[in-house]
Amino acid sequence: MVKYLEIFFEWGVSMGMNMTEKILARHAGLDSVAAGDLITAKLDMVMANDITAPPAIKEFEKIGRPVFDNTKVCFVPDHFTPNKDMKTAALTKIIRDFVKEHNIVNYFEVGHDAGIEHVILPEKGLVGPGRLTIGADSHTCTYGALNGFSTGVGTTDLAVAIATGEAWFKVPEAIKVNLTGTKPANTNGKDVILTLIGMIGVDGALYKSLEFAGPGLESLSMTDRFTIANMAIEAGGKNGIFPFDAKTKAYCVEHFHSEYEPVEPDEDASYCQVVEINLDELKPVVAFPHLPGNTKKVEDIEGEITISQVVIGSCTNGRLEDLEIAANIMKGRKVHPDVRCIVIPGSQQVYLQAMEKGYIKSLVESGAAVSCPTCGPCMGGHMGILTEGERCVSTTNRNFLGRMGHVKSEIYLAGPHVAAASAILGRIATPEEVK
Amino acid sequence: MIYEGKVWRYGDNIDTDVIIPARYLNSFDPKELAAHCMEDIDTTFAEKVQQGDIMVGGKNFGCGSSREHAPIAIQASGVPVVIAADFARIFYRNGINIGLPLLDIGEAVESIKAGDVVRVDTETGEITDVTTGEKFKAHPLPGFVQEIAKAGGLINYIKEKK
Protein backbone atom coordinates (compact mmCIF):
# COMPACT_ATOMS: atom_id res chain seq x y z
CA MET A 1 0.00 0.00 0.00
CA VAL A 2 2.77 2.39 1.01
CA LYS A 3 4.54 1.60 -2.23
CA TYR A 4 1.45 2.44 -4.27
CA LEU A 5 1.10 5.69 -2.44
CA GLU A 6 4.71 6.56 -3.20
CA ILE A 7 4.13 5.96 -6.89
CA PHE A 8 0.99 7.99 -6.65
CA PHE A 9 2.94 10.93 -5.24
CA GLU A 10 5.85 10.46 -7.61
CA TRP A 11 3.57 10.83 -10.56
CA GLY A 12 2.17 13.93 -9.01
CA VAL A 13 -1.34 12.68 -9.67
CA SER A 14 -2.58 13.66 -6.26
CA MET A 15 -1.22 17.21 -6.31
CA GLY A 16 -3.80 19.66 -7.54
CA MET A 17 -2.87 22.75 -9.49
CA ASN A 18 -3.46 26.38 -8.71
CA MET A 19 -4.74 28.85 -11.34
CA THR A 20 -1.31 29.91 -12.59
CA GLU A 21 -0.15 26.30 -12.94
CA LYS A 22 -3.26 25.40 -14.91
CA ILE A 23 -2.80 28.21 -17.41
CA LEU A 24 0.92 27.50 -17.81
CA ALA A 25 0.31 23.75 -18.24
CA ARG A 26 -2.37 24.37 -20.83
CA HIS A 27 -0.11 26.66 -22.86
CA ALA A 28 2.86 24.33 -22.56
CA GLY A 29 0.79 21.40 -23.86
CA LEU A 30 1.24 19.51 -20.60
CA ASP A 31 -1.29 17.75 -18.37
CA SER A 32 0.25 19.27 -15.29
CA VAL A 33 3.11 21.42 -14.09
CA ALA A 34 4.46 22.15 -10.63
CA ALA A 35 6.41 24.98 -9.05
CA GLY A 36 10.02 24.98 -10.22
CA ASP A 37 9.34 23.33 -13.61
CA LEU A 38 10.95 25.07 -16.58
CA ILE A 39 8.53 25.18 -19.47
CA THR A 40 8.12 26.74 -22.88
CA ALA A 41 4.62 28.12 -23.37
CA LYS A 42 2.64 29.42 -26.33
CA LEU A 43 1.57 33.03 -26.02
CA ASP A 44 -1.89 34.45 -26.71
CA MET A 45 -0.80 38.10 -26.79
CA VAL A 46 2.53 39.90 -26.88
CA MET A 47 2.59 43.61 -26.02
CA ALA A 48 5.04 46.51 -25.90
CA ASN A 49 4.97 50.29 -25.48
CA ASP A 50 6.88 53.23 -26.95
CA ILE A 51 9.84 52.75 -24.58
CA THR A 52 10.20 49.00 -24.96
CA ALA A 53 8.99 48.29 -28.50
CA PRO A 54 11.74 50.15 -30.41
CA PRO A 55 14.65 48.18 -28.89
CA ALA A 56 12.55 44.98 -29.16
CA ILE A 57 12.02 45.66 -32.87
CA LYS A 58 15.79 46.11 -33.28
CA GLU A 59 16.44 42.77 -31.56
CA PHE A 60 13.62 41.07 -33.51
CA GLU A 61 15.27 42.09 -36.76
CA LYS A 62 18.50 40.34 -35.71
CA ILE A 63 16.62 37.02 -35.45
CA GLY A 64 15.66 37.00 -39.10
CA ARG A 65 12.22 35.39 -38.81
CA PRO A 66 8.76 36.73 -39.66
CA VAL A 67 6.24 37.97 -37.07
CA PHE A 68 4.66 34.82 -35.60
CA ASP A 69 1.10 36.17 -35.80
CA ASN A 70 0.17 39.73 -36.75
CA THR A 71 -3.05 39.52 -34.71
CA LYS A 72 -1.26 38.55 -31.49
CA VAL A 73 1.25 41.38 -31.33
CA CYS A 74 0.12 44.63 -29.78
CA PHE A 75 1.86 48.00 -29.57
CA VAL A 76 0.66 50.88 -27.42
CA PRO A 77 2.59 54.16 -27.49
CA ASP A 78 1.57 55.59 -24.11
CA HIS A 79 4.62 56.51 -22.03
CA PHE A 80 6.13 59.59 -23.69
CA THR A 81 3.07 60.28 -25.83
CA PRO A 82 1.76 62.53 -27.26
CA ASN A 83 5.48 62.69 -27.96
CA LYS A 84 7.21 65.08 -25.60
CA ASP A 85 10.33 65.71 -27.69
CA MET A 86 12.02 64.81 -30.97
CA LYS A 87 13.86 61.78 -29.60
CA THR A 88 10.66 60.15 -28.37
CA ALA A 89 8.88 61.08 -31.60
CA ALA A 90 11.61 59.19 -33.47
CA LEU A 91 11.14 56.16 -31.20
CA THR A 92 7.40 56.04 -31.80
CA LYS A 93 7.98 56.30 -35.54
CA ILE A 94 10.03 53.08 -35.38
CA ILE A 95 6.89 51.34 -34.08
CA ARG A 96 4.60 52.97 -36.63
CA ASP A 97 6.87 51.89 -39.51
CA PHE A 98 7.07 48.34 -38.16
CA VAL A 99 3.29 48.17 -37.78
CA LYS A 100 2.82 49.14 -41.44
CA GLU A 101 5.54 46.82 -42.72
CA HIS A 102 4.25 43.78 -40.83
CA ASN A 103 0.55 44.60 -40.92
CA ILE A 104 0.24 44.54 -37.13
CA VAL A 105 -3.47 44.64 -36.35
CA ASN A 106 -3.40 45.84 -32.75
CA TYR A 107 -1.68 49.20 -32.86
CA PHE A 108 -3.20 51.92 -30.70
CA GLU A 109 -2.33 55.35 -32.06
CA VAL A 110 -2.51 58.35 -29.74
CA GLY A 111 -6.05 59.71 -29.66
CA HIS A 112 -8.32 57.42 -31.73
CA ASP A 113 -9.72 54.69 -29.44
CA ALA A 114 -6.46 54.27 -27.54
CA GLY A 115 -5.04 54.96 -24.11
CA ILE A 116 -2.74 53.41 -21.51
CA GLU A 117 -1.72 49.83 -22.38
CA HIS A 118 -3.05 48.09 -19.26
CA VAL A 119 -6.32 49.96 -19.42
CA ILE A 120 -7.02 49.31 -23.09
CA LEU A 121 -5.94 45.69 -23.53
CA PRO A 122 -8.74 44.52 -21.22
CA GLU A 123 -11.11 47.18 -22.57
CA LYS A 124 -10.57 46.01 -26.17
CA GLY A 125 -10.89 42.32 -25.30
CA LEU A 126 -7.28 41.45 -26.14
CA VAL A 127 -6.75 39.69 -22.82
CA GLY A 128 -9.15 37.43 -20.99
CA PRO A 129 -9.74 34.40 -18.79
CA GLY A 130 -7.28 31.52 -19.14
CA ARG A 131 -5.15 33.51 -21.58
CA LEU A 132 -1.39 33.87 -21.42
CA THR A 133 0.07 37.30 -22.14
CA ILE A 134 3.53 38.78 -21.87
CA GLY A 135 4.27 42.45 -22.17
CA ALA A 136 7.44 44.50 -22.18
CA ASP A 137 6.16 46.48 -19.24
CA SER A 138 6.30 45.34 -15.64
CA HIS A 139 2.64 46.15 -14.98
CA THR A 140 1.50 43.59 -17.55
CA CYS A 141 0.48 41.56 -14.50
CA THR A 142 -2.71 43.68 -14.50
CA TYR A 143 -4.60 41.18 -16.69
CA GLY A 144 -4.63 38.61 -13.89
CA ALA A 145 -7.74 40.47 -12.74
CA LEU A 146 -9.48 38.73 -15.65
CA ASN A 147 -8.36 35.24 -14.57
CA GLY A 148 -5.48 35.19 -17.07
CA PHE A 149 -1.76 34.69 -16.59
CA SER A 150 0.21 37.74 -17.59
CA THR A 151 3.65 38.96 -16.70
CA GLY A 152 6.19 41.61 -17.60
CA VAL A 153 9.36 40.86 -19.55
CA GLY A 154 12.20 42.83 -21.10
CA THR A 155 12.75 43.75 -24.70
CA THR A 156 14.81 40.70 -25.69
CA ASP A 157 12.16 38.29 -24.40
CA LEU A 158 9.61 40.33 -26.30
CA ALA A 159 11.65 40.28 -29.52
CA VAL A 160 11.89 36.49 -29.36
CA ALA A 161 8.18 36.25 -28.59
CA ILE A 162 7.31 38.34 -31.67
CA ALA A 163 9.33 35.89 -33.75
CA THR A 164 8.34 32.59 -32.11
CA GLY A 165 5.07 33.16 -30.22
CA GLU A 166 6.67 31.40 -27.27
CA ALA A 167 8.46 32.20 -24.05
CA TRP A 168 10.18 30.17 -21.34
CA PHE A 169 8.92 30.30 -17.79
CA LYS A 170 9.85 28.85 -14.46
CA VAL A 171 6.56 27.81 -12.89
CA PRO A 172 6.30 30.02 -9.81
CA GLU A 173 5.36 29.03 -6.31
CA ALA A 174 2.09 30.64 -5.30
CA ILE A 175 1.03 32.68 -2.30
CA LYS A 176 -2.68 32.48 -1.57
CA VAL A 177 -4.16 35.79 -0.45
CA ASN A 178 -7.38 34.90 1.32
CA LEU A 179 -9.77 37.83 1.50
CA THR A 180 -12.61 37.80 4.01
CA GLY A 181 -15.12 40.44 5.06
CA THR A 182 -16.42 43.29 2.94
CA LYS A 183 -14.58 46.29 1.54
CA PRO A 184 -15.73 49.35 3.55
CA ALA A 185 -16.93 52.62 2.00
CA ASN A 186 -14.17 55.10 1.14
CA THR A 187 -11.66 52.33 0.45
CA ASN A 188 -10.74 50.73 -2.86
CA GLY A 189 -8.47 48.16 -4.46
CA LYS A 190 -5.43 50.38 -3.88
CA ASP A 191 -5.92 50.14 -0.13
CA VAL A 192 -6.09 46.33 -0.45
CA ILE A 193 -2.88 45.98 -2.45
CA LEU A 194 -0.93 48.58 -0.45
CA THR A 195 -2.02 46.80 2.75
CA LEU A 196 -0.80 43.50 1.29
CA ILE A 197 2.55 44.92 0.17
CA GLY A 198 2.93 46.54 3.59
CA MET A 199 2.45 43.09 5.14
CA ILE A 200 4.72 40.99 2.92
CA GLY A 201 7.20 43.63 1.69
CA VAL A 202 8.39 44.73 -1.74
CA ASP A 203 10.11 41.36 -2.21
CA GLY A 204 7.51 39.33 -0.31
CA ALA A 205 6.32 37.60 -3.48
CA LEU A 206 9.66 37.55 -5.31
CA TYR A 207 9.44 35.06 -8.25
CA LYS A 208 6.04 34.00 -6.93
CA SER A 209 2.44 34.16 -8.00
CA LEU A 210 -0.17 35.97 -5.91
CA GLU A 211 -3.47 34.12 -6.10
CA PHE A 212 -6.46 35.91 -4.65
CA ALA A 213 -9.26 33.92 -3.04
CA GLY A 214 -11.99 34.04 -0.46
CA PRO A 215 -15.45 35.46 0.18
CA GLY A 216 -14.08 39.02 0.33
CA LEU A 217 -13.66 38.98 -3.45
CA GLU A 218 -17.37 39.56 -3.82
CA SER A 219 -17.04 43.16 -2.62
CA LEU A 220 -14.21 43.94 -5.06
CA SER A 221 -15.21 45.51 -8.37
CA MET A 222 -13.32 44.74 -11.58
CA THR A 223 -11.63 48.13 -11.17
CA ASP A 224 -10.45 47.11 -7.68
CA ARG A 225 -9.13 43.84 -9.11
CA PHE A 226 -7.25 45.54 -11.96
CA THR A 227 -5.61 47.84 -9.39
CA ILE A 228 -4.66 44.92 -7.16
CA ALA A 229 -3.31 42.67 -9.94
CA ASN A 230 -1.48 45.67 -11.44
CA MET A 231 0.65 46.07 -8.32
CA ALA A 232 1.53 42.37 -7.80
CA ILE A 233 4.92 43.34 -9.26
CA GLU A 234 5.41 45.84 -6.43
CA ALA A 235 5.60 42.87 -4.07
CA GLY A 236 8.09 41.26 -6.48
CA GLY A 237 5.36 38.97 -7.85
CA LYS A 238 5.55 37.27 -11.23
CA ASN A 239 1.80 37.62 -11.60
CA GLY A 240 -1.34 38.23 -9.63
CA ILE A 241 -4.48 36.28 -10.49
CA PHE A 242 -8.15 36.34 -9.52
CA PRO A 243 -10.71 33.57 -9.81
CA PHE A 244 -13.43 33.83 -12.44
CA ASP A 245 -16.79 34.85 -10.99
CA ALA A 246 -19.99 36.69 -11.90
CA LYS A 247 -18.14 40.02 -12.09
CA THR A 248 -15.49 38.65 -14.44
CA LYS A 249 -18.23 37.12 -16.54
CA ALA A 250 -20.11 40.41 -16.75
CA TYR A 251 -16.91 42.19 -17.78
CA CYS A 252 -16.28 39.59 -20.48
CA VAL A 253 -19.82 39.93 -21.84
CA GLU A 254 -19.07 43.60 -22.39
CA HIS A 255 -15.44 43.39 -23.54
CA PHE A 256 -14.16 39.91 -24.37
CA HIS A 257 -15.95 38.41 -27.32
CA SER A 258 -13.73 35.40 -28.09
CA GLU A 259 -14.26 31.97 -26.61
CA TYR A 260 -12.56 31.41 -23.31
CA GLU A 261 -12.00 28.77 -20.71
CA PRO A 262 -11.60 30.10 -17.15
CA VAL A 263 -9.41 28.33 -14.60
CA GLU A 264 -10.12 27.63 -10.97
CA PRO A 265 -7.72 26.25 -8.39
CA ASP A 266 -8.05 22.59 -7.45
CA GLU A 267 -9.12 22.00 -3.88
CA ASP A 268 -5.72 20.47 -3.13
CA ALA A 269 -3.74 23.10 -5.05
CA SER A 270 -0.41 23.84 -3.47
CA TYR A 271 0.54 27.21 -1.99
CA CYS A 272 3.83 28.09 -0.31
CA GLN A 273 2.17 30.62 1.97
CA VAL A 274 -1.30 31.86 2.88
CA VAL A 275 -1.89 35.51 3.76
CA GLU A 276 -5.17 36.51 5.39
CA ILE A 277 -6.72 39.94 4.94
CA ASN A 278 -10.01 40.83 6.59
CA LEU A 279 -11.53 43.55 4.43
CA ASP A 280 -13.86 44.61 7.27
CA GLU A 281 -10.73 46.09 8.88
CA LEU A 282 -9.44 47.78 5.72
CA LYS A 283 -8.50 51.45 6.14
CA PRO A 284 -7.28 54.08 3.67
CA VAL A 285 -3.55 53.48 3.27
CA VAL A 286 -0.70 55.56 1.89
CA ALA A 287 2.77 54.33 0.87
CA PHE A 288 5.45 56.75 2.03
CA PRO A 289 8.59 57.47 0.01
CA HIS A 290 10.49 55.67 -1.43
CA LEU A 291 8.98 52.16 -1.51
CA PRO A 292 5.44 50.87 -2.12
CA GLY A 293 5.88 48.72 1.01
CA ASN A 294 6.37 51.77 3.28
CA THR A 295 2.69 51.83 4.11
CA LYS A 296 0.83 53.63 6.82
CA LYS A 297 -2.88 53.99 7.54
CA VAL A 298 -3.85 57.60 6.93
CA GLU A 299 -5.36 57.74 10.43
CA ASP A 300 -1.96 56.84 11.89
CA ILE A 301 -0.11 59.71 10.21
CA GLU A 302 1.24 62.13 12.81
CA GLY A 303 1.13 65.81 11.94
CA GLU A 304 0.22 67.27 8.58
CA ILE A 305 1.89 66.24 5.34
CA THR A 306 1.35 69.16 3.00
CA ILE A 307 1.54 68.54 -0.74
CA SER A 308 2.02 70.48 -3.94
CA GLN A 309 0.70 68.00 -6.51
CA VAL A 310 -1.89 65.25 -6.87
CA VAL A 311 -1.96 62.80 -9.78
CA ILE A 312 -5.11 60.77 -10.40
CA GLY A 313 -4.75 58.29 -13.24
CA SER A 314 -2.31 55.63 -14.59
CA CYS A 315 -2.63 51.93 -15.40
CA THR A 316 -3.26 51.42 -11.68
CA ASN A 317 -6.09 53.90 -11.09
CA GLY A 318 -7.11 55.52 -14.37
CA ARG A 319 -10.42 53.73 -14.90
CA LEU A 320 -13.94 55.14 -14.91
CA GLU A 321 -14.66 54.09 -11.32
CA ASP A 322 -11.47 55.84 -10.14
CA LEU A 323 -12.56 59.09 -11.82
CA GLU A 324 -16.06 58.66 -10.39
CA ILE A 325 -14.63 58.37 -6.88
CA ALA A 326 -12.47 61.45 -7.38
CA ALA A 327 -15.26 63.49 -9.00
CA ASN A 328 -17.74 62.67 -6.24
CA ILE A 329 -15.31 63.91 -3.59
CA MET A 330 -14.18 67.00 -5.52
CA LYS A 331 -17.56 68.08 -6.95
CA GLY A 332 -18.56 71.53 -5.71
CA ARG A 333 -15.22 71.97 -3.92
CA LYS A 334 -12.01 73.66 -5.00
CA VAL A 335 -8.56 72.16 -5.34
CA HIS A 336 -6.37 73.68 -2.62
CA PRO A 337 -4.61 76.81 -3.97
CA ASP A 338 -1.15 75.34 -3.29
CA VAL A 339 -1.92 72.13 -5.23
CA ARG A 340 -1.82 71.20 -8.91
CA CYS A 341 -4.26 68.35 -9.37
CA ILE A 342 -3.62 66.40 -12.59
CA VAL A 343 -6.26 63.94 -13.73
CA ILE A 344 -5.44 61.48 -16.52
CA PRO A 345 -8.18 59.20 -17.85
CA GLY A 346 -6.71 55.79 -18.72
CA SER A 347 -8.26 55.59 -22.16
CA GLN A 348 -10.29 57.56 -24.66
CA GLN A 349 -13.30 55.43 -23.75
CA VAL A 350 -12.82 56.21 -20.05
CA TYR A 351 -12.45 59.89 -20.98
CA LEU A 352 -15.68 59.92 -23.00
CA GLN A 353 -17.67 58.04 -20.39
CA ALA A 354 -16.34 60.34 -17.66
CA MET A 355 -17.50 63.30 -19.74
CA GLU A 356 -20.93 61.82 -20.36
CA LYS A 357 -21.38 61.13 -16.66
CA GLY A 358 -20.28 64.64 -15.72
CA TYR A 359 -17.14 63.58 -13.86
CA ILE A 360 -14.81 65.59 -16.08
CA LYS A 361 -16.98 68.70 -15.61
CA SER A 362 -16.88 68.30 -11.83
CA LEU A 363 -13.13 67.78 -11.87
CA VAL A 364 -12.39 70.75 -14.15
CA GLU A 365 -14.75 73.02 -12.21
CA SER A 366 -12.94 71.94 -9.08
CA GLY A 367 -9.65 73.13 -10.57
CA ALA A 368 -8.14 69.89 -11.82
CA ALA A 369 -6.02 69.85 -15.00
CA VAL A 370 -7.37 67.02 -17.15
CA SER A 371 -4.91 65.44 -19.60
CA CYS A 372 -5.37 63.08 -22.51
CA PRO A 373 -4.53 59.43 -21.71
CA THR A 374 -0.79 58.91 -21.08
CA CYS A 375 1.50 57.34 -18.48
CA GLY A 376 2.96 60.86 -18.26
CA PRO A 377 4.17 61.76 -14.78
CA CYS A 378 4.02 58.23 -13.32
CA MET A 379 7.59 57.42 -14.37
CA GLY A 380 8.73 61.03 -14.63
CA GLY A 381 8.06 61.22 -18.35
CA HIS A 382 6.11 64.46 -18.70
CA MET A 383 2.82 66.12 -17.69
CA GLY A 384 3.64 66.87 -14.06
CA ILE A 385 7.32 66.51 -13.11
CA LEU A 386 8.32 67.44 -9.56
CA THR A 387 11.14 69.75 -8.51
CA GLU A 388 13.27 69.67 -5.36
CA GLY A 389 11.29 69.54 -2.12
CA GLU A 390 7.89 68.93 -3.73
CA ARG A 391 5.50 66.28 -2.47
CA CYS A 392 2.90 64.51 -4.56
CA VAL A 393 0.02 62.23 -3.63
CA SER A 394 -0.34 59.90 -6.58
CA THR A 395 -2.64 57.05 -7.54
CA THR A 396 0.23 55.56 -9.58
CA ASN A 397 2.17 52.46 -8.60
CA ARG A 398 5.73 53.43 -7.68
CA ASN A 399 7.20 55.98 -5.30
CA PHE A 400 10.86 55.17 -5.96
CA LEU A 401 13.49 57.84 -5.44
CA GLY A 402 13.33 60.35 -8.29
CA ARG A 403 10.59 58.44 -10.09
CA MET A 404 8.48 61.55 -10.79
CA GLY A 405 11.32 64.04 -11.09
CA HIS A 406 13.88 65.46 -8.67
CA VAL A 407 15.66 63.04 -6.34
CA LYS A 408 14.63 65.29 -3.47
CA SER A 409 10.93 65.15 -4.36
CA GLU A 410 8.55 62.74 -2.64
CA ILE A 411 5.72 60.53 -3.88
CA TYR A 412 3.00 59.20 -1.59
CA LEU A 413 0.99 56.41 -3.21
CA ALA A 414 -2.73 56.30 -2.50
CA GLY A 415 -6.07 55.36 -3.98
CA PRO A 416 -8.45 57.84 -5.62
CA HIS A 417 -10.35 58.51 -2.36
CA VAL A 418 -7.29 59.78 -0.51
CA ALA A 419 -5.86 61.49 -3.62
CA ALA A 420 -9.04 63.50 -4.21
CA ALA A 421 -9.45 64.44 -0.54
CA SER A 422 -5.78 65.47 -0.40
CA ALA A 423 -6.19 67.65 -3.50
CA ILE A 424 -8.95 69.61 -1.74
CA LEU A 425 -7.23 69.95 1.63
CA GLY A 426 -3.65 70.43 0.42
CA ARG A 427 -2.42 67.70 2.74
CA ILE A 428 -2.75 63.93 2.96
CA ALA A 429 -6.35 63.37 4.03
CA THR A 430 -9.32 61.00 3.87
CA PRO A 431 -12.72 61.84 2.33
CA GLU A 432 -14.23 62.00 5.83
CA GLU A 433 -12.11 65.07 6.52
CA VAL A 434 -13.46 66.96 3.50
CA LYS A 435 -16.25 69.18 4.70
CA MET B 1 34.52 33.32 -17.69
CA ILE B 2 36.57 34.69 -14.83
CA TYR B 3 36.32 38.35 -13.93
CA GLU B 4 38.22 40.30 -11.32
CA GLY B 5 37.36 43.85 -10.44
CA LYS B 6 36.73 46.53 -7.87
CA VAL B 7 33.36 46.59 -6.14
CA TRP B 8 30.74 49.32 -6.47
CA ARG B 9 28.49 48.56 -3.52
CA TYR B 10 24.79 49.40 -3.33
CA GLY B 11 22.00 48.45 -0.90
CA ASP B 12 18.66 46.64 -0.94
CA ASN B 13 15.82 47.20 -3.44
CA ILE B 14 17.92 49.00 -6.05
CA ASP B 15 15.18 49.69 -8.60
CA THR B 16 15.56 50.10 -12.35
CA ASP B 17 14.44 53.75 -12.04
CA VAL B 18 17.64 54.55 -10.16
CA ILE B 19 19.78 52.30 -12.38
CA ILE B 20 18.57 54.36 -15.34
CA PRO B 21 15.96 57.08 -14.74
CA ALA B 22 13.05 57.16 -17.20
CA ARG B 23 13.96 60.67 -18.30
CA TYR B 24 16.81 59.07 -20.26
CA LEU B 25 14.67 56.38 -21.90
CA ASN B 26 14.20 58.58 -24.94
CA SER B 27 17.23 56.68 -26.22
CA PHE B 28 18.27 53.04 -26.18
CA ASP B 29 21.85 53.71 -27.19
CA PRO B 30 23.95 51.80 -24.62
CA LYS B 31 26.59 54.55 -24.34
CA GLU B 32 23.99 57.27 -23.68
CA LEU B 33 22.35 55.07 -21.05
CA ALA B 34 25.70 54.30 -19.40
CA ALA B 35 26.42 58.03 -19.10
CA HIS B 36 23.51 58.32 -16.63
CA CYS B 37 23.69 54.91 -14.93
CA MET B 38 23.00 55.11 -11.14
CA GLU B 39 23.17 58.91 -11.16
CA ASP B 40 20.18 59.48 -8.86
CA ILE B 41 21.88 57.61 -6.00
CA ASP B 42 25.56 57.89 -7.00
CA THR B 43 26.71 60.82 -9.06
CA THR B 44 30.28 59.45 -9.19
CA PHE B 45 29.55 56.06 -10.75
CA ALA B 46 29.20 56.94 -14.43
CA GLU B 47 32.28 59.14 -14.29
CA LYS B 48 34.60 56.90 -12.29
CA VAL B 49 33.60 53.32 -13.14
CA GLN B 50 36.42 51.36 -14.80
CA GLN B 51 36.08 48.60 -17.35
CA GLY B 52 35.84 45.35 -15.39
CA ASP B 53 34.54 46.83 -12.13
CA ILE B 54 31.87 44.72 -10.47
CA MET B 55 28.53 45.90 -9.10
CA VAL B 56 27.27 44.39 -5.85
CA GLY B 57 23.78 44.96 -4.44
CA GLY B 58 21.60 43.66 -1.63
CA LYS B 59 18.13 42.13 -1.74
CA ASN B 60 15.69 42.46 -4.65
CA PHE B 61 18.24 44.08 -6.98
CA GLY B 62 16.66 45.49 -10.14
CA CYS B 63 13.09 45.70 -8.87
CA GLY B 64 10.46 47.82 -10.57
CA SER B 65 10.20 48.66 -14.24
CA SER B 66 10.93 45.96 -16.83
CA ARG B 67 13.19 48.33 -18.78
CA GLU B 68 16.01 46.28 -20.28
CA HIS B 69 17.77 49.64 -20.57
CA ALA B 70 18.83 49.02 -16.92
CA PRO B 71 21.06 45.95 -17.36
CA ILE B 72 22.20 47.43 -20.70
CA ALA B 73 23.29 50.63 -18.89
CA ILE B 74 25.24 48.58 -16.34
CA GLN B 75 26.83 46.41 -19.03
CA ALA B 76 27.72 49.41 -21.19
CA SER B 77 29.38 51.01 -18.15
CA GLY B 78 31.98 48.25 -18.39
CA VAL B 79 30.58 46.14 -15.55
CA PRO B 80 30.76 42.49 -16.71
CA VAL B 81 28.87 40.86 -13.82
CA VAL B 82 26.50 41.83 -10.99
CA ILE B 83 26.38 40.12 -7.59
CA ALA B 84 23.45 40.53 -5.17
CA ALA B 85 21.63 38.79 -2.33
CA ASP B 86 18.86 38.16 -4.86
CA PHE B 87 17.44 39.76 -8.00
CA ALA B 88 13.98 40.92 -9.04
CA ARG B 89 12.74 38.46 -11.63
CA ILE B 90 12.33 40.61 -14.74
CA PHE B 91 15.78 42.13 -14.23
CA TYR B 92 17.16 38.60 -13.76
CA ARG B 93 15.67 37.43 -17.06
CA ASN B 94 16.86 40.57 -18.82
CA GLY B 95 20.40 40.12 -17.51
CA ILE B 96 20.56 36.54 -18.77
CA ASN B 97 18.94 37.52 -22.07
CA ILE B 98 21.54 40.20 -22.86
CA GLY B 99 24.49 38.15 -21.63
CA LEU B 100 25.12 39.98 -18.34
CA PRO B 101 25.78 37.29 -15.71
CA LEU B 102 23.91 37.85 -12.43
CA LEU B 103 25.00 35.91 -9.39
CA ASP B 104 22.83 35.63 -6.27
CA ILE B 105 24.53 34.64 -3.03
CA GLY B 106 21.92 35.49 -0.38
CA GLU B 107 22.71 37.40 2.78
CA ALA B 108 26.40 36.45 2.60
CA VAL B 109 26.66 39.40 0.22
CA GLU B 110 26.68 41.65 3.31
CA SER B 111 30.40 40.97 3.87
CA ILE B 112 31.42 42.32 0.47
CA LYS B 113 32.31 45.99 0.89
CA ALA B 114 32.72 48.91 -1.48
CA GLY B 115 36.19 49.03 -2.96
CA ASP B 116 36.96 45.35 -2.28
CA VAL B 117 38.40 43.42 -5.20
CA VAL B 118 36.37 40.30 -6.03
CA ARG B 119 37.08 37.45 -8.42
CA VAL B 120 34.08 35.80 -10.05
CA ASP B 121 33.92 32.52 -11.98
CA THR B 122 30.59 32.70 -13.82
CA GLU B 123 30.81 29.03 -14.90
CA THR B 124 31.09 27.60 -11.39
CA GLY B 125 29.43 30.46 -9.50
CA GLU B 126 32.46 30.72 -7.22
CA ILE B 127 33.20 34.19 -5.91
CA THR B 128 36.27 35.21 -3.91
CA ASP B 129 36.61 38.51 -2.12
CA VAL B 130 40.32 38.91 -2.83
CA THR B 131 40.56 41.76 -0.30
CA THR B 132 39.27 39.68 2.64
CA GLY B 133 39.90 36.16 1.36
CA GLU B 134 36.26 35.20 1.93
CA LYS B 135 34.66 32.80 -0.53
CA PHE B 136 31.04 32.58 -1.73
CA LYS B 137 29.03 30.29 -3.94
CA ALA B 138 26.21 31.56 -6.14
CA HIS B 139 23.09 29.56 -6.90
CA PRO B 140 23.55 27.81 -10.27
CA LEU B 141 21.45 28.90 -13.25
CA PRO B 142 18.61 26.47 -13.89
CA GLY B 143 18.55 24.02 -16.84
CA PHE B 144 18.55 25.47 -20.32
CA VAL B 145 18.96 28.96 -18.90
CA GLN B 146 22.64 27.99 -18.61
CA GLU B 147 22.66 27.43 -22.36
CA ILE B 148 21.20 30.91 -22.94
CA ALA B 149 23.95 32.37 -20.77
CA LYS B 150 26.62 30.34 -22.62
CA ALA B 151 25.33 31.52 -25.98
CA GLY B 152 25.84 35.10 -24.76
CA GLY B 153 22.13 35.86 -24.57
CA LEU B 154 18.73 34.85 -25.85
CA ILE B 155 19.01 36.26 -29.38
CA ASN B 156 22.19 34.25 -30.04
CA TYR B 157 20.62 31.20 -28.45
CA ILE B 158 17.54 31.43 -30.68
CA LYS B 159 19.68 31.98 -33.78
CA GLU B 160 21.86 28.97 -32.92
CA LYS B 161 18.77 26.83 -32.41
CA LYS B 162 17.35 27.76 -35.81
Describe it for me?
The complex is a heterodimer of chains A (435) and B (162). Chain A has 14 helices and 18 strands. The radius of gyration of chain A is 21 Å and the shape is globular. A five-stranded parallel β-sheet of chain A has the order 4-3-2-5-6. In chain A, strands 16-15-14-17-18 form a five-stranded parallel β-sheet. Chain A folds into two domains: 2-277, Aconitase, domain 3, CATH 3.30.499; 285-433, Aconitase, domain 3 (2-Layer Sandwich), CATH 3.30.499. With 435 residues, chain A is an alpha/beta fold. Residues 1-12 of chain A have low confidence and may be disordered. By secondary structure, chain B is an alpha/beta fold. In chain B, 28% of the residues lie in helices and 18% in strands. Chain B has helices at residues 16-19, 30-34, 45-48, 69-76, 89-98, 145-151, 154-161, and strands at 2-9, 54-56, 82-84, 102-104, 117-121, 126-129, 135-137. In chain B, strands 4-3-2-1-5-6-7 form a seven-stranded mixed β-sheet. In chain B, α5 (89-98) links the parallel β3 (82-84) and β4 (102-104). The two termini of chain B are 26 Å apart. The model of chain B has no long low-confidence stretch (mean pLDDT 95). At the A-B interface, α3, α4 and α6 of A face α5 and α7 of B.
